[in-house]
Structures are given as C-alpha cells and as structure tokens.
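Attaching the record inline, Q. Sequence:
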Amino acid sequence: MGRVERDREIARRRTRRAKLKKLRARFAAAKTPADKEAIFLKARKMSPFVEFEGQPAT
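Structure, as predicted:
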C-alpha cells in the first residue's frame, strides 16, 4: 500500500531536518569563510529561511 500525502510530507520534513543538522555541524567545523559560505548556500537552497549560528544576516 502506498503512502498518503501527509506521510510523504512528514518524511520530507524529517529528511530536511536531518540534512540541515549535518550541514550545521559541517558549518561549525569549517575553517575558512569560503567553506562556510558554500555550506550555507547549500542549506539555503534546501530551506530558504534557514539561519546558522555565526552567519551574518544577508
């Protein structure tokens, strides 16, 4: 039996949160501003309103 739309929506949200958690960890470990910017832009594509600690407001 297939998934209903609500189940797919919840699965997408869980996947997005997990990916953002990994990107936040990579962002915190990044040394150079260029690396931080690249990671932040990748996260921004996934979630347009995401904010990271230490990231200046754009």
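The CA atoms of residues 5 and 11 lie 10 Å apart. Residues 5-29 form the longest helix (25 residues).

More tomorrow.
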